[in-house]
Amino acid sequence: KRPAGAPDRSLARPVTKVGVVGAGLMASQLALLFARRLEVPVVLTDLDRARLDKGVGYVHGEVDRLLAKGRITGDQANRLKGLVTGSLTKDAFADADFVIEAVFEDMDVKRKVLAEVEEVVPETCVLATNTSSLSVTEMASGLRHPERVVGFHFFNPVAVLPLLEIVRGAATGEATLATAFAVGATLKKSCVLVKDAPAFVVNRLLTRFMGEVTAAVDEGTPLEVADHALDGLGLPMTPFALLQLVGPAVALHVAETLHAAFPGRFGVSENLAKLVAAGKPGVYGADFQIDPEARALFEGG
Ligand code: 3HC
């Protein structure tokens, strides 16, 4: 069944090669997913060799894990490893049909990246962004072909969570959107079309949820009490474990975007900002015990 708002599939263009800009954790997870489900070459690019090697290394490690679990055969593992390569220049995207960026969450950085990619890719190549909260319309503005930009927002862990928010910007073309839905279906994701609104839909809800949990701690509820208050609801993980998975910097960025867009409706936890400034990966330290410094930052108020 065609998802609500998806254009006719006949408008979708074939995708025979994928480019991924960035080789961080999100980008590497995307590279593996695209290679595994689309079975086409996937090229990762990043600024330096060390990051590239880490990204490709992550993919190889995950392929080995899938092989060890018996989810793929040895032949499939070798093929998958061969499909994912790294390149220091975007020239490797010259014959790509679909490029997705998963770089730092900053409008200027993303606009610059898309403009650079546009210089090398074929005219019909889709340019997707995995932004978690920024405007797809603004990101596309200034490009020669803004009609080929679309939001393609995945959820962590990408290999496990089925949801994919597809974001239509003001200029997004029908063929671009149709290709995005076709690719999403081949990736075996549940695609939903969402408006190009700050933080789209899911991160808006999650930010509200996290905002209330952090506010409770800011106001004096002990961390453990707030974090385990919902255990009985059967959520897959506690709120602060989720914050750790998403990364406090990303969560803070989304909260700031929402605060800027709707100042009366969304606040920004000062203690979350302190956690990010201190460079903490979350409130939990090694062996999943609450890190005393993180506790002091949060409960210190
Ligand atoms: N990469 C790949 N696979 C992973 C993984 C990862 N990072 N983490 C877990 N998995 C796999 C495991 O290998 C396992 O697979 P198997 O069944 O084939 O063996 C399966 O997921 C279940 O893992 P576990 O048994 O280790 O653990 P759980 O059952 O507790 O599940 C979880 C872990 C999938 C992370 C689950 O806790 C969960 O779904 N949590 C909620 C995550 C969530 O809400 N994410 C959304 C964040 S918001 C976001 O990303 C948007 C952004 O813009 C901020």
From TrEMBL:
Domain of life: Bacteria
Organism classification: Bacteria, Bacillati, Actinomycetota, Actinomycetes, Streptosporangiales
Family: Belongs to the 3-hydroxyacyl-CoA dehydrogenase family. In the central section; belongs to the 3-hydroxyacyl-CoA dehydrogenase family.
UniProt protein name: Enoyl-CoA hydratase/isomerase family protein
Residues of the whole record sequence present: 320 to 620 of 702
Ranges for domain 3-hydroxyacyl-CoA dehydrogenase NAD binding: 17-196
Organism: Microbispora oryzae
Domain 3-hydroxyacyl-CoA dehydrogenase C-terminal, first and last residues per copy: 200-282
Transmembrane segments: none
